[in-house]
Amino acid sequence: MKKPTNSKYSDDQVEFLxxxxxxxxxxxxxxxxxxxxxxxxSDLAIKNxxxxxxxxxxxxxxxxxxxxxxxxxxxxxCTADELTxxxxxxFASNLCxxxxxxxxxxxxxxxxxxxxxxxxxxxxxxxxxxxxxxxxSSNWGLLLSKQPAKKSAA
Length: 154
Known about the structure:
Number of helices: 8
Number of strands: 0
């Protein structure tokens, strides 16, 4: 099936856009296009024409994996805010702290240190049994367990 020709733009105009899309911003490309071909196209019209004709800007080269890994491993002891500030300064970007955390997870294994034991998250310990019984028998224990207090017959 033959691709339908576009009557709004000549082949020369489409060729002009494809040659200059990498050199200019959209606004500059539109002004240059209008002055060259004596037209009054808007930025949106040029943008849609680029899309319809599959004319794309090349993506900028990203930061290499090794560079990012070296950076994150070298800055493991920073707070998230400090790491974000250093990243944005080093790589001339403007990312938020959440984005930096996501990037960091790829390169730095999170070391989980054993935290102090608490009653709520420990395995059953036989030595705690007398203390738990004492707590339950006291008024605080009744309050904590949300059992109604027994009324005494005084």
